[in-house]
Every structure is written in C-alpha cells, then in structure tokens.
Description:
The chain is α+β, with helices and mostly antiparallel strands. It starts with 12 loop residues before the first helix and ends in a 5-residue tail after the last helix. It folds into three domains: 13-193, Histidine kinase-like ATPase, C-terminal domain (Heat Shock Protein 90, 2-Layer Sandwich); 202-279, no CATH class; 308-357 and 365-470, no CATH class. The strands form three sheets. Strands 5-4-3-6-2-1-7-8 form an eight-stranded mixed β-sheet. It has a five-stranded mixed β-sheet with strand order 9-10-13-11-12, covered by helices on one side. It has a four-stranded mixed β-sheet with strand order 14-15-17-16, sandwiched between helices. α2 (28-39) crosses α6 (167-177), α7 (283-332) packs across α13 (455-470) and α12 packs antiparallel against α13 (455-470). The chain has helices at 13-21, 28-39, 65-71, 78-81, 127-132, 167-177, 283-332, 334-339, 346-354, 368-375, 422-427, 431-447, 455-470; strands spanning 44-49, 54-58, 107-116, 119-126, 141-143, 153-161, 186-189, 192-193, 202-209, 214-221, 234-238, 241-246, 260-265, 383-389, 392-399, 408-411, 414-418. β11 and β12 (241-246) form a beta hairpin. The chain contains 13 helices and 17 strands. This is ATP-binding protein. Pfam families: HATPase_c_3.
Amino acid sequence: MTILTIPITFDKSHLITIGEKLYSESIELIRELVNNAYDADATSVRVTIAEDEIIVQDNGSGMDEQGLRQYFNIGSTEKRQHNRSPKFNRIRIGEFGIGKFATLAACGRFEVTSRKDNFAATVTFDKEEWEQSNNHWHLPMRLEAPEILKTNGTTVKLNKLYKKFKLDDVERRILEGVPIKAEHFEVYLNNKKISARFLAGQRIPVFEGSEYGIISGELILVSNTNFIVGGPGIEIKVKGVTIKRDLFGMEINFPQLNLLTGEIHADFLPITSDRTGFIKDSPGYHEFNKVMRGVLQRVLHDIKYWQKQKEKKKNRRIVNATVDKVLNALKKNPELASLIGLPVSPEEEKQKTEGEILPKKPRVKRTPAQKRMVSKILGPSAVVARLKIGKKGISCQLDHFGQDSPESYTESNIIYINLDHPLYVREAKNRERLIVNVARLLTQELTLLKNPKNARQAFDTQSKLLKDTLIDTTP
C-alpha cells in the first residue's frame, strides 16, 4: 500500500473574503480595533471618524518587528497562550487572530503604525495590490523614526472608505462591545469621552456559581422599555464585551421581563469567531442557560411585587388627591354634608350628638359579592384613605376584590372600591380619568349613606357634590 501526501492550500483571495464576511455588521471593525488596544494595556484610545478616513490611536505597549509579524499571523494563538496582559493583568479579549482583517469590510487600504521603545514601523495592506500580486504573500513594512509616535502605542488608519458610519452607532457599539468600565481605560470618539450611561431602575445583583465558572452582574428593572438603549434584554458579556442580549426565551410567556436589562458576566462561555453568539451545544452554555433561567424565575417574583407596590403608590396618590377634593366640596356645601349625614362644623356635630336621638339604621341585605368585599382581609396591595368630617370619619379602601364583584360598596363607614372591576381597570390607564372615576364612586357612596328613598334627590345630590369635587369654582 502506497501512502501519498497532498498539501493543504489556501487561496490568498480568501483572506479578503474572511475580512469582508467575518462580521454581520461592518461597524464591528471599530470595536475590534479598540479591543486590540485594550489587550495591549492602553489607557487611552482615540477614535477619529472623518469623511475619508478612520483613525484608531492608542498608547498601549506597541509592537516591535516580531510583534508586527505576529500581528499579521492569521489565526495566531498568541493571545490564547498568554491570556493576561503584562502591565494591568487584563484578561485579553482577542482569541482567533483574524479580527484585524475585518477592516476590509469598510475600506480598501489600512495602515498599522506601531512604536515600541526605539523601534517604529508602518505596515500597509492594500486590497487592490494584494489581489494583483498573485502568489506574493508579503506586505511592505516601512521602518520609521521612533519619534513618529510620541509614546509607545499603535495607530491604525483606514483609507479608501466605501462605507460610512454614524457617530451615534459607533458610540453605541463601543459601549456594548468594549470594556468601557475597566480601570485605567478611556475611549474617545472624535475627542468626546465615551462614558457608561446610568440607567435608573430597580437594581438586582447576581452572583451565581457553576462548575464552569462564576456568573455575576447586575440586572436593572426599568419602568419603560423606551429607556433601554439597544432594546430590551440582558447584555451577556464575555471578558467585558457584550456578545448578545438575551432573555432566554422566557419573555414569550412572561412579557414583563421585557422591562429587564443590565449585564451578566460569564467569561467561561465559548463564543463564535465573529463574537456575536455562543456555541450553544457546549456544556458550559447549557449550564449557563439553566442558571440564568433560574435567576429570572426568582426575579419574576420580585417584578410582580414591585409592580404591586408601584400600583399601590399610584392608587394612594389618586385616592388621597380625590379625598381632598371631595372634602373641599363638602366644606363648600354644608347643606350637602348635612343632607348625607356628615356635619362639617363642631356646632353641628354637637347638635347632632346632644340634641337629637338618631334612629337606628335599617339593616341592609347584602349580596354574596358584597359580603365577599366586606369580609375580605386587608390585602398587601390595599390602599386606605380617611375622610374626616367633623368628628366623624369615613374610610376609603381600594383593594382587589375580583372583576365580578361590585364597583364599590359601603359598610360600617368604610367605602370599598374594587381595583379589579373592568371599568376601574380601563380608567386606570389615564390619571385624570381615574380621578374622575374614583370621585364618582366616592360621591356615589357618600350620597347613599343615609339610604335616600328618593332616587332623583340622590342623583341630584351626587351631581352637585361631583361637580364641586372636580370643578374648582373658587374665584
């Protein structure tokens, strides 16, 4: 048996194809260049985007001749073998050694100028010349005087641009794809420092262990999805870089999770070569997915609690504001207060209690639904406000009684208002309409306190009281 060997060949034109097709968005090339500076222990990176040129300049460790040769080594394992930077001990982001060719997705020519101590040189990659040089695999390297750069560092210039980038898009991608919060690291875009944005909301710390590594970060619950830059979802970061936003499919059954953002760090996760996704059939990702779904299940309970608390605060503001309006209306109309059995002055209260024996109120037969409202124990989302007239007090309680229960009911000087009634739910979408609705129910129950026999009189009394509650007639 004869065994022959065949060579593995690589068409040099494919190098350009890799660069052009490596990322789904060509804007990723800027993120890649900034992260290269981070890996090189840079403390400052300046990105300049002009009409015909893009420049990324850093003050990192720079490269000597050997470093430049390594830089253009396709698929180099240098960063995987030495995954910590020498000065700041940073976890290096680069892994595959092909990201620098992503520049070819936006330009026809790029230059890399680097200085390390007394060595400085410029390497040029021109796409047109590369394609015309047949089997020539070398790039021109021009030696420079070290003074070409003020300090050690690297400058990458992109020319012959055929794609344009909006500054807002570049800033967003740098915020997501660069470890912008790292110590001793600043990024400037056209001389403007890029800083991490503060997002207001309920903060939830996360720190979970797994057999593959630590899962940590912070989730933020916001009140409106419009506040989330880049759309809802948790930023999943590996080595400080956002790989993707995810809610692990749970937002389909629990849409309230769309109010959740924040960032989770899991450096052990295996990522795809274009850094836009994870290798999902890996054991590490399966474990991560399981842990995060458990975290979100716990967070769901917290979200429901906070939403109830938010609803409670909103209802308290509404009922307090409405009670004040009703009280002012009664004070302006003493005759209405007397008509419904609520004296507004101490003298009237004294006359009521000392000069008159009040007849015993007839027992009112309640429906089963009304009995459920009255007998219900004060729930955690209940709101109670007190309406004090003279020495008498009327309490107003807003609570969840079920959508089939009455809108409102009064028992033992307590006015119950049902938060679950379809009418209340509909009116709750607008603050002014909700105030009108609560005022309507309060005035209705107040008018019925003395069990008026004349329906017309009851309606007229409520109409007058409601008008003075909602319309300020003070000159």
